Amino acid sequence: MARATSRADALGESSRLSEAEIAVHWREEELYAPPAEFVAQANLTDPQVMERFSLAHFPECFREFGELLSWDRKWTTTFDSSRAPFYRWFVGGKLNACYNCLDRNLEQYRNKAALVFVGEPEEEPPVSITYQELFVRVNELAALLRDEVGLQAGDRVTVHLPMVPELPITMLACARLGVVHSVVFGGFSGESAGRRAADSGSRVLVSMDGYYRNGKFLDHRPAADLAVATAKSEGQTIDTVLLWQRHPGKYLSSAKLVEGRDRLVNDLLKKYRGRRVDPVSLPAEAPLFIMYTSGTTGRPKGCQHAVGGYLAYVTATAKWIQDIHPTDVYWCTADIGWITGHSYIVYGPLALAATSVLYEGVPTYPDAGRLWRIAERLGVNIFHTAPTAIRQLRRLGPDEPKKYDLRFKTMTTVGEPIEPEAWLWFYHTVGKGRAVVTDTWWQTETGGVLCSTKPGIDRMKPGSTGPPLPGIFPAIMDENGREVPAGSNRAGNLVIRNPWPGLMSTIWGDAERYKSTYFSKYNKRPNSKDWRDWPYFAGDGAMQAADGYYRVLGRVDDVINVAGHRLGTKEIESACLTVPEVAEAAVVPIADELKGRVPELYVTLRPGVTVSAEIERKVVHAVETEIGKIARPKAVHFVADMPKTRSGKIMRRVLAAISNTMEVGDVTTLANPDVVEAIRVQVQGKGKVATQAAPEDIAKFGERD
Ligand code: WT7
């Protein structure tokens, strides 16, 4: 379990790097082999897979993914790049995503649970919905959407729902009709939903009266009014609001229904009892859904995903990386309102006939044991979560998992790099050293996982996402478009050299932005139709170790340049987490006359630990020894809580603004907007502080765009 010794002196190495590169100071971690019992039952154990998916076999290798689906008409051309970088996969093929997730599973799995819904109130027993029952409900809703609301293939619908079964039911009903769903995370404001509805041109909004979160019943209905008003102000009329009820038959919102606009779905459904709707057969490249990226400023980008390529890609990756079999009980704690939930709660698992668990509430309600009780009760054997949840659970209940009979065979993390300290806790305490951990790197834009260890084949390395998936060919490039030597441990921009079936088709309504954001940076021949001329720019900094494993350092906008040394935020934060008292750390740049930028730290401590000069000294010491004196923080702020997005990402942008006495900007979409003012007062003192103009890099620091 001991850590391997550190690599060559960090600073000596970084001083040889060009300006454009990020200095790398990670130390190598020990490798962990998958247990034999896991390998014995794994879906993917053939080491030849990388050869089968080698560049020489691109793009036809991806036929294997397409063949996991049921097609109404088989494709004729696997890959078409005649309009590069706008690609089409499985051209000539026709299929329906809802059919692939439901109808085709009925014969064998009719009475097996498709979804298990766990409401947040713990006294509400879990509700199992079988494949048959889900099929019935989706058909009834599809009939309603078509015959009552007049929706047809190609129309867009904005869905603003919490984590309840009605959310996947709505998505699948849309998919059955070829209606393009645009799910907006339930925790987002009505204004955010309205802006996205306007962008996608939705005339229908699906919402709910309310839901449970952190022990309270939240009135969600007012958000629908705001969404309609916001869409209207942007020129889009929403004529129909379909409202589900958290407790069918009872309308629990304080807001009155709007005559002629609001319809209670549960009332309308009575007319459609037992109705069946034929799945609409769609061309493979037809849009299945739009998912807006988690950008907090700028116009949101609607990533448009295609039925055929997307579904094939998430089905194959869920099978190989999460190792889903129909007999598994699979639980991903993400929200379906993010791409992770679309790909790996709904479409991938259901296409594989798994049982997928849906939990309404927060992971720590009513206490830090809640997730482990759910997992034990339902017999979950595949567990999928995010580093932010892992850190939070470790902070609040480090010994809690030991009290439960957890039997995970695979555990996946996604969303940001995981600090080795957090990884080791996850592996040893949650997985009990018996589960394979996969650290999956991907993005809303990419549809599914691009880098991860293959659980039945590769060894795991804490803090590294691992090798690319079969058929994916990444490279690290410098700012000038030169490839950084493979396996050289040198950082740069992560690109993917080839297209893959899960890659979005375009940005909804803005093809130019698709091209300029992701492909222009490294394209040298703008008129080329050869995919080799269009490397995909992911916007992440990364390095590749000699063993081929990638380590993601964070968004390239999140780099801190200290006297010419580009420091990745994640490694500084990781260094802080080697101090046992530290629960979470965030680093931001502050302007410094001498060095350009210097890091400033925000730290939360584990419960029961009190702030002391001793801990501060330990934190500074950890940064100096793990990274170097160059990264020495100007100040360490011990805060009670971090400002976070609803998806759990720490908003470094907000902390950077506070540190640099700038306006914090819009914080209404945060999970906990109140902590912002508390931190501001703590750092700047009471009273309004004069704002200063923001240097460009600091103003943009921490943005996803
Ligand atoms: C960004 C994408 C992918 C679904 C959830 C987030 C970061 C994601 C990892 C990982 C290091 C990761 C990247 C990426 N990221 N997974 N395993 N290791 N970084 O989707 O909101 O589109 O965010 O999340 O920076 O670009 P998203």
What does this structure look like?
With 705 residues, the protein is of the alpha/beta class. Helix content is 28%, strand content 21%. It is built from 21 helices and 31 strands. It has an 8-stranded mixed β-sheet with strand order 13-12-9-7-8-15-16-24, with helices on both faces. The chain has a 7-stranded mixed β-sheet with strand order 6-5-18-17-19-20-21, sandwiched between helices. α17 crosses α18. The longest helix is centred in the first third of the chain and has 17 residues, at 131-147.
SSE topology sketch:
Layout: H1 10-14, E1 22-23, H2 36-41, H3 49-52, H4 63-66, E2 77-83, E3 86-91, E4 94-95, H5 97-109, E5 113-118, E6 127-130, H6 131-147, E7 156-159, H7 166-177, E8 180-183, H8 190-200, E9 204-208, E10 210-213, E11 216-219, H9 221-233, E12 240-244, E13 262-264, H10 265-268, E14 282-283, E15 287-292, E16 302-306, H11 307-320, E17 329-332, H12 339-351, E18 355-359, H13 370-378, E19 382-385, H14 387-396, E20 410-414, H15 420-430, E21 436-440, E22 474-477, E23 491-496, E24 506-507, H16 511-518, E25 536-544, E26 550-555, E27 560-562, E28 565-567, H17 569-576, E29 582-592, E30 596-605, H18 613-626, E31 636-638, H19 652-659, H20 674-684, H21 696-700
Parallel strand pairs: 1-28, 5-18, 7-8, 7-9, 8-15, 9-12, 12-13, 17-18, 17-19, 19-20, 20-21, 30-31
Antiparallel strand pairs: 2-3, 4-14, 5-6, 10-11, 15-16, 16-24, 22-23, 23-25, 25-26, 27-28, 29-30
This protein binds 5'-O-[(S)-butoxy(hydroxy)phosphoryl]adenosine.
